[in-house]
Design a protein that fits this description.
By secondary structure, the chain is of the alpha+beta class. The protein has 16 helices and 11 strands. Helix 3 (60-76) crosses helix 4 (84-107), helix 4 crosses helix 7 and helix 8 (175-184) packs across helix 15. The two termini are 40 Å apart.
């Protein structure tokens, strides 16, 4: 069942809250300034090519166009924009990561359909209480074309599918991990949402109804793997110099945008909001006594040197009234997934839940097996099942899931325990019925329902919530490790970095 967990991703609070920010604010962005003569000379030096990733070229024109878009977003979020050459290097690094993920998606046959993008658009419109036509108008007023907006959403959906397949599915959370988590949080609600006050009103004093929530930003000075001690000390001195600069009054978000090697650099380093105990132990210990607005010292990890800023901390409170949450969506934001900061508290008392006992056969897509071929394989298997062959025996022979040796048996499944596409198709089946081929982020499935039962799931629900919280704690480092693996396996010629003074 490991390939079917409902995805839980850590999303920065800046992204969650920016869903409610007016799209029209993006139109106020300014174009990037003309390059200085030295920069122009650099462009000529690299002959119009910013980077080569495997066999794909990223041009300076593409980087400059993306930098203009990023500049607008940073200005709208009031994040100080670094000088043009630094901004271009940060943007290029993001583009290299995106290209690597595109290549990986093509390698395994992941394709985001127009229907998936349409559903994302509808979700954004519904979440902001506007129609799709009104959303289109907001996008047009922002200066972004509708085609570019949909392309950005398509990319975000693809990245989410990649995370689910290659990152979340590889994280193992044992029963002893869950036991320890529940023991540490005995008597506390699992999580509750912090209310966002309207922009023109002060936030009410929070009532301590659950675990302490902390919103963090970071500046990461990355240290290469197997770096010599002299390189480690040089990076430490760089981090210490940045810390002195911050203590002298420099803007943290601006310094992060200009200097951080972290993936959130151009968001001012904002890593989002989580319960304090869900941050890595190294981080939670470093900011244990740091008030909101405070900055940690230099913290060393296996990735390098971190400087942390506590953006906000406090206890959960009831959600804000709906009237305070009705501003239009900011363009280029995909639907925000459920997180520890947005999930309702776990209820107490009996929880009667309908469970479904199901089997499945999974055919994964790849360069060799595309969507059409995977679907055709399952349609053939479904015909054989209709003619009397055993679903379980065919699952043992053909399924590419870990449940294959058990005849595709997934056991008793709770609501929310599988990805939405799988659950929706499963819920539509009667006992003993076999589905048509169903597409999910993991490939194509045939599903058979063995039976249903109603059960008190109070304890099981708390354990499921604990697994989600532990997943959130581990997903960030695991995702960065996966990106590191993609970079290590690829040919990358970053020419802007060479012009700036050498490879990192």
């Amino acid at each position: 069942m490991s390939g079917l967990r409902h995805p839980v991703r850590v999303l920065s609070l800046a992204v969650v809250l920016s869903v409610w920010v007016s799209a029209s604010a993006l139109a106020a962005g300014k174009p990037a300034p003309r390059p200085a003569p030295a920069q122009a000379a650099s462009e000529q030096f690299v002959d119009g090519i910013a980077a080569i990733v495997d066999k794909e070229v990223i041009t300076l024109a593409q980087v400059n166009a993306k930098a203009v878009q990023v500049r607008r977003q940073m200005e709208q979020q009031r994040i100080p924009v670094p000088e043009a050459s630094v901004l271009r290097r940060q943007v290029l690094q993001q583009m290299i990561n995106a290209t690597l993920q595109d290549h990986e998606a093509k390698r395994v046959g992941i394709r985001v359909s127009d229907a998936q993008v349409d559903r994302a658009v509808q979700t954004i419109a519904q979440r902001n209480r506007i129609t799709v036509d009104q959303l289109r108008n907001e996008i047009a007023n922002s200066g972004l074309s509708w085609d570019d907006y949909r392309a950005d959403l398509r990319s975000q959906i693809q990245d989410d599918i990649l995370r689910q397949r290659f990152v979340e599915d590889r994280i193992t959370i044992s029963d002893s991990d869950v036991d320890a988590f529940l023991a540490m949080n005995a008597g506390q609600p699992m999580a509750a949402p912090p209310a966002a006050a309207p922009a023109n009103e002060p936030a009410p004093a929070p009532a301590p109804t659950g675990p302490e929530l902390v919103e963090l930003a970071q500046i990461l000075i990355e240290v290469p793997d197997y770096a010599a001690e002299s390189v480690v000390q040089e990076k430490r001195k760089q981090a210490e110099a940045i810390l002195r600069k911050l203590k002298s009054g420099a803007d943290f978000a601006g310094v992060a945008a200009a200097s951080s090697n972290g993936p959130q650099a151009l968001e001012g380093g904002n890593m989002g909001i989580r319960p304090l105990h869900d941050w890595p132990d190294l981080f939670s210990q470093a900011i244990a006594n740091t008030p909101a607005g405070g900055i940690s010292g230099v913290v060393q990890s296996g990735r390098g040197f971190h400087i942390l800023k506590v953006l906000r901390r406090g206890y959960a409170q009831r959600p804000a009234p709906k009237s305070a949450q009705s501003a239009p969506a900011r363009p280029s934001q995909a639907p925000a997934p459920e997180t520890a900061a947005t999930r309702a508290p776990a209820p107490s008392g009996p929880m009667m839940v309908t469970q479904t006992h199901a089997r499945h056969i999974l055919i994964k897509t790849s360069k060799v097996v595309d969507d059409a071929k995977a679907r055709a394989i399952l349609e053939g298997l479904r015909t054989r099942i209709e003619h009397g062959e055993s679903f379980a025996e065919l699952a043992k022979r053909y399924s590419e899931d870990a449940s294959a040796p058990q005849g595709g048996d997934l056991g008793w499944l709770n609501p929310g325990e599988t990805v939405p596409a799988f659950e929706q198709a499963m819920n539509a089946l009667q006992d003993g019925q076999v589905s048509e081929p169903v597409k999910s982020p993991f490939g194509w499935h045939l599903i058979q329902v063995e039976g249903r039962q109603t059960k008190n799931m109070e304890q099981e629900f708390r354990r499921m919530q604990a697994r989600r919280e532990l997943m959130q704690r581990r997903i960030g480092p695991a995702y960065e490790d996966w990106l590191d693996q993609l970079r290590a396996q690829a040919y990358i010629d970053n020419r802007l970095e060479k012009v700036a003074g050498g490879d990192r």
